[in-house]
Amino acid sequence: MKDMINRAVSLGLGIAIASKEQAEKLVDELVRKGEMSRAESFAFVDDLLKKGQEAQRKVEAVVQERVQAAIGDKKWATKEDIERLERRLDQLIARLEKPGAGAGEGEGVKTEEDLP
Known about the structure:
The protein has three helices and no strands. The protein is mainly alpha-helical.
């Protein structure tokens, strides 16, 4: 899920970079034609970039909202939760593998080979 979000954000950044380049080309053309001064062009590009950044923030907020809606209030195991459970299982297995840890005298821990 995180990878999908990162790809969506990267796509947004790619579009923003492409848009900046396109905006700069457009502004350079307007300056060359005399329809805009160089000072106006800098202000215009800055304004476009600010609007683009704001649009990107809005997209990120919508994506985050949609992700939260999709996963809801479900409690997902974290990496730390899984690591803790694995350590606990290792401890229990080690205890069972000790001599005399079986259900009765002479019985050991059953392995996959022992199962029918």
